[in-house]
Design brief:
Number of strands: 10
Largest sheet: 5 strands, mixed
Distance between the termini: 44 Å
Strand order of the largest sheet: 2-1-3-10-4
Order of helices and strands: HEHEHEHEEEHHEHEHEEHH
Helix content: 25-40%
Shape: elongated
């Protein structure tokens, strides 16, 4: 473990120093779809400071993990949960000792229908015929939505209304397009949304959506991948992450 830590520190020092190294000058990062906006800003900031390139690929955490386990050429994995990065380490797909909790997500209930008052009570409103969620089997935000519905004793009542997206980005699109009147999505997706109305789901209704990153074995010798993970720990990165809907302590009310 000590050797791994020293090695990562050495590689990151080389990134900062700009030392010429024969390895690739880019890294491929698999990113949970809820984190897409923040990831793009983070990648741009890192590219500007390092001169290297970050290639981002988005999808549900479960599907991304399946791709990684099947040999997809990713160097870093930014999941929307803690379970998959841990499994990646356990399965020999990621480097032990590199796991990092980079964000804690919040779940919101979103609507673009001005006639639908947005709160927990809307789930039983007869005007709501479709409720969008991410697939709970592969997307942590979908699993959190099911937990919240169960805590509210609404899961059986809304079961016929559920419309499942492959990931939380698709769940958002269902609501945005009008295919569903309301939907459970990520706070990060509505931070800049001027037209929608949303209710921030109390954290007590579901397990924390702690999101972990990990260095994959393919990226173990990639100074760009190592440097990007280290960058996520910096104050600059944390400020970007907080500004995109992952505050350390988000209030349980819409501003």
């Amino acid at each position: 473990m000590r050797f791994i830590a020293l090695r990562l520190c050495f590689l990151f020092a080389l990134v900062i120093a700009g030392a010429p190294i024969a390895s690739a000058d880019e890294a491929r990062v698999a990113v949970a779809s809820n984190f897409s906006k923040a990831a793009r800003v983070l990648a741009a900031a890192y590219e500007q400071s390092s001169g290297h390139t970050i290639n981002l690929s988005f999808g549900s955490t479960g599907l991304l993990y399946a791709q990684i386990s099947q040999g997809a050429p990713f160097d870093v994995f930014l999941a929307a949960d803690q379970a998959r990065p841990k499994r990646a380490v356990d399965d020999g797909l990621a480097v032990e000792g590199t796991t990092l909790t980079y964000a804690v997500g919040r779940l919101v209930l979103l609507s673009f229908d001005e006639d639908v008052p947005i709160s927990a009570s809307v789930l039983g409103d007869p005007r709501v015929s479709r409720l969008a969620i991410a697939n709970p089997a592969t997307a942590p935000y979908g699993a959190a939505a099911i937990e919240a519905l169960t805590a509210l004793d609404m899961q059986a009542a809304v079961a016929p209304k559920l419309v499942r997206g492959a990931n939380v980005a698709q769940a958002y699109q269902f609501v945005f397009s009008g295919s569903a009147e309301v939907g459970f999505v990520a706070l990060s997706q509505v931070m800049d949304e001027a037209d929608g109305n949303w209710w921030l789901v109390p954290q007590a209704l579901h397990a924390p959506i702690a999101q972990d990153a990990v260095l994959l074995t393919r990226g173990a010798d990639n100074i760009v991948a190592v440097g990007f993970l280290e960058f996520l720990k910096t104050d600059a990165a944390r400020s970007i992450i907080a500004a995109h809907g992952y505050p350390a302590d988000a209030p349980d009310a819409q501003p």
